[in-house]
Every structure is written in structure tokens, then in C-alpha cells.
User: What shape does this take?
Amino acid sequence: MSDQVVRDNAIRVVVADDQDMVRAGFRLLLEQPADIEVVADAGDGRAAVGLAERVRPDVLLMDIRMPRLDGLAATRRITQAQPDCRVIVLTTFDIDDYVYEALRAGASGFLLKSAPAETLIQAIRTVAAGDALLDPAVTRRVIEQFGRLPAPVAETPAELAWLTGREREVLVQLARGFSNAEIASALYVSDATIKTHVARILAKLGLRDRVQAVVYAYEHGLAGRG
Assistant: This one.
């Protein structure tokens, strides 16, 4: 585990992985962009939680399989204690349960370690800007995994009444995995209009990003409704 001085105005990143060579590789890769700085790294989940509290990174790259505390549990602790810290879960595995649990734990993104370097760099920029992402290789299986969940039995949350009919429609489309552009095309409106709807949905439901909106929609039975 180590720290270093961060460049002014750079996106502050912590890397958590139990393999020394992997952490060194990420550091080397992320030294290239001027707007990203690795400020610390950790070799296990418990250390990652402590570092997140101490150095307050903008983005934390989190391996799933780590000693002392696995990446899913560490992600849950970090996102609950520090909502402004965005976690991107990285793994060599694309097993559905991992993806699903990572999203439920509060991760803002999920990438396979085999993803191209530029994809990782763009992912960091995306989540640091407040958006969310999933690797295209696993997005569809995430939607399918949610679709296999048992029908919810809880009452419809009161805050859903705060959404307009169009906002509920957009939320359903988000849950089905469509991008802003795809939703805009389907509803015959502009991308900017959909972006506004998404922002209002997140604010009204107290959600952080699109990933949380997808989880919310499926856990409350909205994705199967028109």
C-alpha cells in the first residue's frame, strides 16, 4: 500500500487489487493521462476501505476477489460511508452474480480486466463526471439477471408518485438497458430532453446514477410494466 502526491485538478484514483503486478500495471497505465492520478493503492479490501476514508478518492478501482475483505463487501462499506466516491469493479470474471451484487453494493461501473486501456481510462472519466457505466460485454447479461429476480412483494414506494408519466417511462427504458440516444429515438424527443428526465428521476428518487436507477426499477417491479 502506498501514497503519492496528486497533480492539481486531476481525478484522484485508488487502485485495490491483491496482485502487486496488477496494481503496478494500473499505475503505469494511468500515469499517461494528464487528468488522472493514482493517489494510493491497496492489496486487500480492508485496506481499500481505510484508504478511501483517509485519502478521499474520486474513483476507486476495486478487484472482486481479495483477502481480508472481498471487493463486494468493501464496495458496500465505501459507498455507504462516502457517497461521493465512485467505485468501478474490475474482475477477470464476468459471472452474473458478481455483476448483480456489485451493482447492489453501490458500484458505479463494472469492467472486465481484459477491457482495452482506453476503455478503462474513459470509464474513470465517466464515473468521475457523475455518470455510470457497464462493460458492453456484460450489460445484456446484467439486464437478464435482473429479469430473473422474483417479483417484488413490497408495496410501491411513495416517492414513485413524484415521477411524471414520462419520467416513469424513461425509468423503465433505463432499466431495460437503453442509452439516452436510444430512449430519445423511441420517444421522439431530443437527447437533451432525456438527459433532463434522467436527472430529475435521480433527484426525485434520491439515486446517485443510472446504475442505481436500474437496480431500483427492477427491485420495485417497474421494468416489466409499460
